[in-house]
Design goal:
α1 crosses α2 (24-35). The chain has one domain (2-35). Helices cover 92% and strands 0% of the residues. The chain is mainly α.
Length: 36
């Protein structure tokens, strides 16, 4: 079941990287919501 978890994390990170390419400030806002 951890396998599906890793896939979900991998896809999520790829989406974050795409957002980072389109909007550099977008990814920082997302990380602030996650960590703070």
């Amino acid at each position: 079941h951890f396998f599906f978890l890793y896939i979900n994390i991998y896809v999520y990170i790829k989406q974050l990287l795409r957002l980072n390419e389109n909007n550099g400030e977008g990814i920082s806002k997302i990380f602030r919501q996650i960590y703070y």
